[in-house]
Each structure stands twice: as structure tokens, then as C-alpha cells.
Design goal:
This protein is α+β, with helices and mostly antiparallel strands and about 350 residues long. The chain folds into 2 domains: about 65-195, YerB-like (YerB-like fold, 3-Layer(bba) Sandwich); about 225-350, YerB-like fold. It is about 10% helix and about 30% strand. It has 4 helices and 20 strands. It has a 10-stranded mixed sheet. Strands 8, 9, 10, 11, 12 and 20 form a 6-stranded antiparallel sheet that branches. Strands 6-7 form a two-stranded antiparallel ribbon.
Length: about 350
């Protein structure tokens, strides 16, 4: 063997000893290289994105977990002709409307995501509030009540921040209209007053149920007419551009003196509830106890559509709405107006 040939053979042997190839070098009986990857013992998963905190009564994004734990404030607001337009009623997360003496209606407005400096006019409580306020575990603001209502509020252990209870700090009289239609309240002062009186100012809120997905209606409900009484009728007209229902009260646009805009709602919910006669005055006006626990018929309107079903409520949580097939009816994120009517009332929609 020549010297050059020997060098070439040694080079090939050296190369085979250094390079590792799957088939080995020619003439090598050793197995190919096996890549040892770690054995998979569990499937790879992708973490679910953390959902942002949302206001319990609107389903809209909230700034923090701390914000959504602040206690709800329930305010009784007048709706006689002399009280309109109200101030900052539009900023409420949820509004209950129900009939009172003489056929006029009154509002119980629930605030958590907004804290207006001026809200009103504030008026007296009614027996329906004995159900509403505990369901939201709210601080209750009103200007007075009958002895029977006052007794029921006390027995229900409601956090009473009314003038009846000697509270004056959050209230003031405006100069824009005559008494008794000019009493206003500052909600931040309500929270301060509650804290001074040793009341809890935070809570774990039992909220309403919302569906964050956009919904398209196949047939839009463009108008809802609700005849509360001969003295008060309400029409909600659907505005497809904003996805909101615009309110008309007794034939006139119902505007808000604080926002300067027509009152609107993302959700309109009609609740049929028992109206038990509590008393009658000397002129025949009837005071009702409107029973908002138990169950009854309901119609939910949002995104231009109507869903019929039922409402169910206990004493310590807001109502739950269910369709005829038993599935839960969820609201669209935004504010809600609960329209509470007698079982005999027929609404009209088109």
C-alpha cells in the first residue's frame, strides 16, 4: 500500500469515528444515532386569558376589583310631572319603575358604576322597596315614608340613610323648582355618611347575568308601549344605530337634566308582579305592596329582540330571568330598566 493510500484510509476511519450519521459509515454495523426527546406526560395547554373586572349590574368593564366591591346605593326618585326632567337618573345601573298613588310612577335607581354629585329629586319610600333593596344589599336613600313603610324598613334591617333616620349631610334643596320636588343628594357623601355610621361600604355583589357576545335580531322590536295606568304611559323606541331603547313618558321625550340627553336603556325588562292593596286614602288613592319575590311572567328586550319567559327572585339576590325552555335569559352589557306592572296589564310592541 502506498503512503498516500494509507493516509486516505486513516482519514476515512477518523471521519467515521467523529461524524454520527443515522446509517453509520459504510462497513459499520453500529446502529444509527437516536434523538432522545423528553417523553410527553401531559398535553400542552394554553392558559385562558384573564377576564377583566366587570361591573355586576351592567356587565361593562370596571377599573379594578376594588371598584366592583363598593356597596350599591339605592335612591328613591320621583316621577310626577313636576319632577321631570330628573337629574342624572340616566347614570343609574338599574332602574325599577312601578306605580304609586294616583297612578303616577316612582323609581328605585341603583348606582354602583357611577357616583353623580347631584341626583334627584329624591322622594319617599314605598313597600316595593322592601323587596328591591335587600336583593341588592344596598344602602337606601329616600326622603320619608309612612309609618307602616318605616316599620317594614326597620324590620327588614335595611341600611337606612334617609332624612327619616336623621341623615342630613348628603342632602340639599335646589333652587330650580318648588318643594317638595327639589331635594337632591350627593352620592359620594352618602358613602361618607354610611362609613361614619358604621355601615358596611363594601360587599360581594350578586349581579345580573350578561352575555358579552353581540346579538343580531332577525326581527327587530322597534317599539314597546307600557300602560302603567291612565296617569302614566311609557313608550320605548329602539334605536338600531346605538342599540338602545329611547324613552317617552306620557307622549313627551323623557330627558335627563344632568346629561342633557333623552333617557335610554340597553335592556328593558317587563316584570308582571302581584300588586296587593295595602291601603286607601280618603280620596280613594290606593297604596300597593308590590311583591317582587317569588316568580311571575317577564319579557326581556335588548338588541331589537324580545324574549318571553319568567322571573324568579328570593330575598337576597336580584331576579333571574328564564326562557320558556328553562334556559337563562342574559342581558346585553349596559344599563337596565325594570318595568314592574300589574298582572292584568297588557303591553304592546311592534
Amino acid at each position: 500500500m502506498s503512503l498516500n493510500t494509507a493516509r486516505r484510509v486513516l482519514g476515512v476511519v477518523a471521519l467515521c469515528s467523529v461524524l454520527l450519521v443515522p446509517a453509520g459509515c459504510k462497513g459499520d454495523d453500529s446502529p444509527g444515532v437516536v434523538s432522545h426527546w423528553p417523553e410527553a406526560t401531559t398535553e400542552r395547554t394554553v392558559s385562558k386569558p384573564v377576564e377583566p373586572p366587570r361591573w355586576p349590574l351592567t356587565g361593562l368593564d370596571a377599573p379594578s376589583e376594588e371598584a366592583i366591591s363598593q356597596r350599591i346605593i339605592s335612591v328613591k326618585i320621583e316621577n310626577s310631572p313636576a319632577a321631570r326632567p330628573q337629574t342624572n337618573l340616566q347614570l343609574a345601573d338599574v332602574v325599577y319603575e312601578s306605580v304609586t298613588e294616583g297612578g303616577i310612577t316612582r323609581f328605585n335607581a341603583l348606582f354602583q358604576s357611577n357616583t353623580p354629585d347631584k341626583l334627584g329629586p329624591v322622594r319617599s319610600a314605598r313597600l316595593s322597596d322592601i323587596y328591591i333593596v335587600p336583593q341588592y344589599d344596598a344602602l337606601f336613600v329616600f326622603s320619608g315614608s309612612s309609618s307602616s313603610v318605616s316599620s317594614r324598613i326597620k324590620s327588614a334591617s335595611i341600611a337606612n340613610l334617609s332624612e327619616d333616620a336623621g341623615v342630613t349631610y348628603p342632602f340639599y334643596r335646589g333652587t330650580d323648582r318648588a318643594r317638595p320636588h327639589n331635594l337632591y343628594v350627593v352620592l359620594e357623601k352618602v358613602r361618607e355618611e354610611a362609613e361614619k355610621r358604621g355601615m358596611t361600604t363594601t360587599q360581594t355583589v350578586n349581579g345580573l347575568a350578561f352575555d358579552q357576545r353581540a346579538i343580531e335580531a332577525s326581527t327587530a322590536v322597534t317599539e314597546i308601549s307600557i300602560p302603567f295606568s291612565s296617569a302614566n304611559s311609557v313608550v320605548w323606541t329602539y334605536d338600531a344605530a346605538s342599540g338602545r331603547y329611547l324613552r317617552v313618558n306620557n307622549g313627551a321625550k323623557h330627558t335627563d337634566n344632568g346629561t342633557g340627553e333623552q333617557i335610554s336603556a340597553r335592556n328593558v325588562v317587563v316584570i308582571w308582579a302581584k300588586h296587593n292593596v295595602a291601603s286607601k286614602d280618603v280620596v280613594g288613592s290606593t297604596t300597593y305592596e308590590i311583591v317582587l319575590s317569588g316568580s311571575g311572567r317577564a319579557s326581556v328586550f335588548h338588541d331589537g329582540m324580545r324574549i318571553d319567559g319568567t322571573w324568579e327572585a328570593g330575598t337576597d339576590a336580584p331576579p333571574v330571568f328564564k326562557a320558556d325552555d328553562g334556559t337563562q335569559i342574559k342581558l346585553a352589557p349596559g344599563n337596565t330598566w325594570m318595568q314592574v306592572v300589574q298582572p292584568s296589564v297588557n303591553i304592546v310592541f311592534k
